[in-house]
Amino acid sequence: MTSWMPELRGRSGPLYRAIADALSEDIDAGRLAPGTRLPTHRELAERVGVTVGTVTRAYAEAEKRGLVSGEVGRGTFVRDREVPAHMPTPVELAHDDSPVELGINAPATPEGDPASQALRRSLEELGRTSRLPELLAYQPAAGTTAHRAAGAAWASRFGLQARPEQVVVCAGGQHAMEVALAALTRPGDTLATEALTYPGIKVLARRFQLRLQGVAMDAQGLVPESFEAACRNGTVRILYTQPTCHNPTGAVMPEERRRKVAEVARRHGVVVLEDDSYGLLAETRPPPLSTFLPEASYFIAGVSKLLTPGLRIGYLVAPARARGERLAEEVGLASLMTTPLMAEVLARWVEDGTADELVVRQRQEVADRLDLTRAMLGRGVQREAPVPLYHLWLGLPEGRRSEEFVAQARRNGVSVTSADLFTAGPGPVPAAVRVCIGAPRTRVQLERGLRRLREVLDAGPEPLAAIV
């Protein structure tokens, strides 16, 4: 590793850009040869006297310029600039009329696809160990002790302290929701959730024959007084909630409100299922709601939206005094076990810091994509969340309906998601759509999709005769 130190004297503008400029000059001057490993983010931050986030953004800027390539778990290296990555030509861009997907809520792919690099390296390492046959054999339904310990360590990143025996390893967050509802509810029970909620919970409510009750929410999430009223007026068995980085609105519930919701649940004997799929995208956040109701809260520590969905691993954390056998039984009934090989990969990432690095890269990619989104759509149009996320709750101009707008956008070559999919209960459907800026693989594709979306916003509703 080089002891490179950027020369920043006499430079103006943001510090991250000044570091990238200094790196470019040293590469051009031959002071940094191709293949040179640069200092880690933390080491360079300490040398220069800046934050780790500044160095992360500087390296990301250098990667965009084709100066370096980052390999999660190995470091950042100077690239051979004689072999640049392919970028679409103006002619290619002008003639690309393929549809752009802004409806699927997937994590963004940072430059260099660090998750794929990390997976490739982990699989190579596993192939050289003696543990591979063990990972191909049957395992306990709740996961091995080591994999459950990794789940407890991952939950601690969200601010939730748990022991390994409280953790059940599931095949993603959706599976964790299914396992929890199967173990905790019976047909006819009432499932309360925010008035706007993740569509997957609506599907599961129908499957388990639960009565779904939407509870009023505002810009800060679930309204405690409305939750209290729902508990008094009916038999609410369980509350499914996303207090941090709510999907679709992005709302973040303040700590004091979390305490109030927890107290309402305690008074009425309601079990809480807390889904934290996106929380680590926020560098600072309130404690999980589950910390205020530890005796009756089940917590889903998300992975797919923070690292990569293809691992299909999620962690379900039960209360300390709960009997986890029922949860494990539901996993066993559905699939016998969650794939041990992928659970092992994630356990290694949690232990060696790869998972944390991937989250940092994801935060930076989200910030850059949001800058592009604001430039294309304007700040006054979108209802921005307090935390940078790759899903936006886009308010529509007066007179526009969600379903009509979605259909018009699709005809214009861009997909977004209608508000009616998120509406829980019979209330009115908001004039809004969810826009996902992480789904396009490149920022070039994202820009094309946002431009088409801007055109639909500016064009106004189509004549009725054009809608068949």
Automatic annotation (TrEMBL):
The residues covered by the HTH gntR-type domain are: 13-81
> Is DNA-binding found in the keyword set?
yes
What InterPro entries does this protein map onto?
Aminotransferase_I/II_large (IPR004839), HTH_trans_reg/aminotransferase (IPR051446), PyrdxlP-dep_Trfase (IPR015424), PyrdxlP-dep_Trfase_major (IPR015421), PyrdxlP-dep_Trfase_small (IPR015422), Tscrpt_reg_HTH_GntR (IPR000524), WH-like_DNA-bd_sf (IPR036388), WH_DNA-bd_sf (IPR036390)
Superkingdom of the source species: Bacteria
Keywords on this record?
Answer: Aminotransferase, DNA-binding, Pyridoxal phosphate, Transcription, Transcription regulation, Transferase
Which species is listed as the source? Archangium minus
A GO MF term? transaminase activity
- Designated name of the protein: PLP-dependent aminotransferase family protein
Which Pfam families does the entry mention?
Aminotran_1_2, GntR
Instruction: Return the similarity comment.
Output: In the C-terminal section; belongs to the class-I pyridoxal-phosphate-dependent aminotransferase family.
